[in-house]
């Protein structure tokens, strides 16, 4: 009986009414008289199914039967990934979180870093590689975050790609989407020609190096991006890369951050700045 009651009350990844009210305005609305088949499943249930896969880490085919069919859910996931609906949703929530914290909608500084994750057998050989430093065979995700730890840009490459090489498309995407960024914090791996390349986009690359090599210490500014990696890794679909396309792994990261920001915006006002 207890199990039946828990199943009837939904899953922990389901959205509350307040969280759905935050997300719904950023999704495509059903236009009366549009061509094509009428929508059968509500968008809220589609979003909850995507968040379930992201948080639980299961395969699309293993979606519980009380969600829409997995092909329908994956169809929406792929469509929103490719038509920038997910990007607009994520960026809109990030601006709201920054505004709720008393900050400008557009940041002026960012922190960049990378993290290697093991790849499953579903990842093709062409988009995976060997990270000799971390002893990981898989992919590497390069992210840029603001001072609050909210994701600004994501680039997924093979794990064999050096951080300095992947930082170029990362900074290019960051500059294209956020014109006000002027200062970039990074670790010592990014030293070298990247300074001049960032300067060409009117960005200053500031290296935050360790004071004592081979010793753990909380480094200024760099701990923010490490905390973001911890937030992302709470979603099991992102702990290991299962995606055939790097763009799908980027989408899973954005969905993880979307869930986090929706929870934060739906909190009472006295708890909204808890993080």
Description:
- It contains ten helices and six strands.
- Strands 1, 2, 3, 4, 5 and 6 form a six-stranded mixed β-sheet that branches.
- A hairpin with a 5-residue loop joins strand 3 (136-145) and strand 4.
- Helix 3 crosses helix 10.
- It is of the alpha/beta class.
List the helices and strands and how they pair.
Elements: H1 2-8, H2 17-23, H3 43-56, H4 70-82, H5 85-100, E1 109-118, E2 129-131, E3 136-145, E4 151-158, H6 163-177, E5 183-186, H7 194-199, E6 204-207, H8 222-233, H9 236-239, H10 246-266
Parallel strand pairs: 1-5, 5-6
Antiparallel strand pairs: 1-3, 2-3, 3-4
Provide a compact summary of the structure.
The chain has helices at about 1-10, 15-25, 45-55, 70-80, 85-100, 165-175, 195-200, 220-235, 235-240, 245-265, and strands at about 110-120, 130, 135-145, 150-160, 185, 205.
